[in-house]
Write a structure and sequence with these properties.
By secondary structure, the chain is of the alpha/beta class. The protein folds into two domains: about 140 residues, Aspartate Aminotransferase, domain 1, CATH 3.90.1150.10; about 240 residues, 3-Layer(aba) Sandwich (Aspartate Aminotransferase, domain 2), CATH 3.40.640.10. It is built from 13 helices and 15 strands. The chain has a seven-stranded mixed β-sheet, with helices on both faces. A four-stranded mixed β-sheet has the order 1-2-3-13. Strand 14 and strand 15 form a beta hairpin. Helix 4 runs parallel beside helix 10. The longest helix is centred in the first third of the chain and has 16 residues. Bound molecules: pyridoxal-5'-phosphate (PLP). Pyridoxal-5'-phosphate binds next to helix 5.
């Protein structure tokens, strides 16, 4: 095969579509555990986990072994839902076993946004209603349905018209929940807003939201694409608020670094996709066998290595060691934290300095004064402390 003579940095510039004028552009050699190794021989501590994906670190040996085993058996054999594939059916069983009994039927997708698309369609089909309620500052993905329920005008406006009949309510506002009514097919929310700047609503709001959905027959969809799989200090964030959704959407950390999404509901609700017409929702690659094999291994690692508890300890370590007058607030739960700085300029300078010092930090999509802290849940304590020292030094430079 003829190899392109140009280095990947150049190919990145000439041939890859960019989504901003200033991509970070780190040139990756490999990644292992909490480290990303760059082509220039340096390494960075990964404090964002590929945006809450690499929760068990990069290339966990158990995941690598599961992937290799599956590679030796089969790759894609049929579109979703027709053949019995051991790892796909097995992961559906493993996943539903760690969820409340109502959430007993899993539909696999490739990505998070696709999981939300499926959930929105399912709610419309099951309820025969079309109105949808979502919240300001939310993020649910970039395909047309998910974007329709994403609560940030700046991202929605260029693509209007989107889905009609979507109403946005203020987040964490109990009185506003009265707008959910018997025309509402579904209410979609992140239990903790991620891209909105790591915003934790009250348990009381969650409970009233659940009550209001039950009163009106609207299906409650929790988008746990970012909060799921131990990130917030419980396997799923909804456990901490004492409420269960009708539909749960998942992705990111679930595949242990492989692409996999899911929406999970009851057998009764999920049954809406079987008839009128049959095959109401199909996908070619959803629940890819290699991704499902990786996901089974990932869930075992989270359980066997007690990573849910580890997320809680990460929060205390960060809150007690990362203290500086320039930090207005650290908010969030577990290993899903946002460090709010004075302004966007300082945030940009600090993240740049940290990268120079070997620590990769992130931003959130809707809030430019918040630094995202989302390390792998199995990051060693000493490595996290080293990263915190780099952040403190970067703040001190100001
Ligand atoms: N929902 C939430 C809460 C997210 O954070 C994201 C991605 O960041 C998505 C949905 C979209 O997921 P994906 O990028 O896999 O489509």
């Amino acid at each position: 095969m003829k190899r392109d003579p140009y280095p990947p940095e150049q190919q990145f510039e000439t041939s890859l579509a960019w989504t901003s004028d200033e991509p970070i552009g780190l040139v990756i050699d490999r990644a292992e555990g909490s480290y990303i190794f760059l082509k220039d021989g340096s390494r960075v501590i990964d404090l964002i986990s590929g945006i809450a994906v690499s929760s068990i670190g990069h290339r966990h040996p158990a995941v690598m072994a599961a992937i290799r085993r599956q590679l030796d058996r089969h790759l894609h054999v049929m579109v979703y839902g027709e053949f019995v594939q051991e790892e796909q059916a097995g992961f559906a069983a493993d996943l539903t076993a760690v969820l409340p009994p109502e959430l007993c039927s899993a539909y696999f997708t490739m990505t998070g946004t696709e999981a939300n698309e499926g959930a929105l369609k399912l709610a419309k089909k099951y309820t025969s209603r079309t109105r949808m309620v979502a919240f300001s500052n939310s993020y649910h993905g970039d395909t047309q349905g998910s974007l329709s329920v994403t609560g940030r005008d700046v991202y929605r406006k260029p693509f209007l018209p989107l889905l009609p009949n979507v109403e946005f309510l203020p987040f964490d506002d109990i009185a506003a929940l009265e707008a959910i009514n018997t025309d509402t097919a579904c209410v979609i929310t992140e239990p903790i807003q991620g891209e909105g700047g790591i915003i934790v609503p009250s348990a009381r709001w969650h409970q009233r939201l659940r009550e209001r959905c039950t009163e009106t027959g609207a299906l409650l969809i929790f988008d746990e694409i970012q909060t799921g799989f131990g990130r917030t200090g419980s396997l799923f964030a909804f456990e901490q608020f004492g409420v269960t959704p009708d539909i749960l959407t998942l992705a990111k950390a679930m595949g242990g670094g492989m692409p996999l999404g899911a929406f999970v509901s009851s057998k009764e609700i999920m049954g809406a996709f079987r008839t009128d017409p049959p095959l109401s929702h199909v996908t070619t690659f959803g629940g890819h066998p290699v991704s499902c094999a990786a996901a089974r291994a990932t869930l075992s690692v989270i359980q066997n290595e007690n990573l849910v508890e580890r997320a809680v300890r990460i929060e205390s370590q960060i809150r007690s060691h990362l203290v500086h007058p320039s930090i207005a607030e650290i908010r969030g739960k577990g290993a899903m934290l946002g460090m709010e700085l004075r302004d966007a300029g300082l945030t940009a300078r600090v993240t740049k300095r940290c990268l120079k010092g070997g620590v990769l930090l992130g931003w959130t999509l809707h809030s430019d004064s918040v630094v995202r802290l989302a390390p792998p849940l199995n990051i060693e304590e000493a490595v996290l402390d080293e990263a915190i020292s780099v952040i403190l030094a970067a703040l001190q430079e100001n």
